[in-house]
Specification:
This protein is mainly α and 111 residues long. It has five helices and no strands. The chain has one domain. Helices cover 72% and strands 0% of the residues. Helix 2 packs across helix 3 and helix 3 packs parallel to helix 5.
């Protein structure tokens, strides 16, 4: 492995650890001190991947804003979470995140 790749991996690992320690609250508890036995495979993917975790935090914050504005409903959130929690792989989770972004873009236009 080249030094550049090793450096990039070390930076990513450091960023992941820093991110986990400063993560904002969502409906998924990624606290390493808590038990993760109750997490679905998709929730574990979100907790274990810095990219998925950051992406989900953005989605969660957007959902809360849209919910507060009345642009989406609790049923919309429940449908998203059901889709999210049915994923067993990163590509599935990526698709669910992309679908949410498209849905949210339409909801933002309605505001």
């Amino acid at each position: 492995m080249t030094r550049v790749i090793r450096f990039a991996l070390h930076c990513l690992a450091a960023a992941s650890l820093a991110f986990l320690s400063t993560a904002h609250a969502t409906d998924i508890d990624c606290d390493p001190a808590s038990t993760r036995a109750g997490l679905t495979p998709s929730q574990r993917l979100i907790c274990e991947s810095a990219l998925f975790s950051m992406g989900y935090q953005r989605i969660y914050a957007d959902q809360q804003r849209l919910l507060k504005a009345g642009s989406i409903t609790e049923a919309d959130l429940a449908a998203f979470r059901k889709k999210r929690d049915s994923c067993n792989s990163a590509p599935c989770l990526d698709t669910v995140f992309r679908e949410w972004k498209a849905f949210a873009a339409q909801a933002h236009r309605k505001q």
